Structure formats: structure tokens, C-alpha cells
Amino acid sequence: MLHADLGKAPQLDGTALRIAIVQARFNAHITDALAAGCVQELRALGVAENNITHVTVPGALEVPVALGALAQCGEGDDFEFDALIAIGCVIRGETYHFELVANESAAGITRVALDMGVPIANAILTVENEAQAQARIGKGAEAARVAVEMAQLLAQQP
């Protein structure tokens, strides 16, 4: 049973946490900025540099596969990583491909989180255009905070 103080944000402390980031390289000018903000925020929250693993994959559809592999690291219920972060950017084009990539990457991320019981902060932007993507660069730092908060929450459970 989760015990949390509803409505009150916890004090975030990442000093003992191990976090992995999976970054899609497609739209790298956006995803590089998201990842930089994410790593900067993780460091500000106390996550040691050597406790941050950062891997890249071709695109958003490959992110869940890498997350799944990282979630399987460790032995038994003792995961190597306390939380994972998904970073990517899908910009709408003129075909149905946008919906396919956006929906399937999100579903895959959710499936890994639920199946493996590891928190995953989803910072895969799904936007209409480049301007919307640029306006959401701060989602990388937000994902870092979500990952630390969820890792802390699950660590409190028996």
C-alpha cells in the first residue's frame, strides 16, 4: 500500500538513486536539449554523475525496447536502476505515421513500467510543429523530478 501525503510535493533527494535515460536520436536538436536539461536537473537533485546512465536509440519506437532491457538489469526484485527516463520528440507530419509512433511508443513505455514495476518518466514530446517542441524543452528537467519522486515513493514501500 502506497503511503503518501496527498497534495503535498515531497522533498526530492536523488543522492542514493541510480537513474537511466533512454534518448531517441530522431529530432536530435530537440532531444539533445531535453536530455541536457534532464541530466542537469538530476545532478541538481543530488544524483551522482556515475549513477546516471545515458543511452541513445534511433527513434521513439525503439525507446521502450531499451527501457525494457535496462529494467531487467539487476537480480530478482533488486533492479540496477531506481527509475528510468524516456526522452524523444515526435513532430506531426502529413501522414498517419505520427499517430502510430506517438501511440505505440507511449503504450510500450507504459507496458514496461507496469510489467517491470519500475518508474518511468515519459518525456517523449508529441507535438504539431517545431515551435511547440522548442516551447517544451523544459520537459527534460520535469522528467528528472518525476523520476526522483517516483523512485523515492516506491522505495518507501515494504
DSSP strand (E) fraction? Answer: 15-25%
Per DSSP E runs of 2 or more residues, the count of β-strands stands at 6
**Intertermini distance:** 8 Å
Strand order of the largest sheet: 2-1-5-6
The CATH first-level class comes to Alpha Beta
Question: Stretches where pLDDT falls below 50 for ≥5 residues?
Answer: none
CATH superfamily: Lumazine/riboflavin synthase
Roughly what is the average pLDDT, rounded to an integer?
92
Helix vs. strand class: alpha/beta
Percent helix: 40-55%
Structure report:
The chain is of the alpha/beta class and 158 residues long. The chain has one domain: Lumazine/riboflavin synthase (Rossmann fold). Helix content is 44%, strand content 21%. The protein has 5 helices and 6 strands, in the order E-H-E-H-E-E-E-H-E-H-H. The strands form 2 sheets. It has a 4-stranded parallel β-sheet with strand order 2-1-5-6, with helices on both faces. Helix 3 (97-116) links the parallel strand 5 and strand 6 (120-127). Helix 1 (28-44) crosses helix 5 and helix 2 (63-71) packs parallel to helix 3. The longest helix has 20 residues, at 97-116. The protein is globular, with a radius of gyration of 15 Å. The termini are close together. The mean pLDDT is 92.
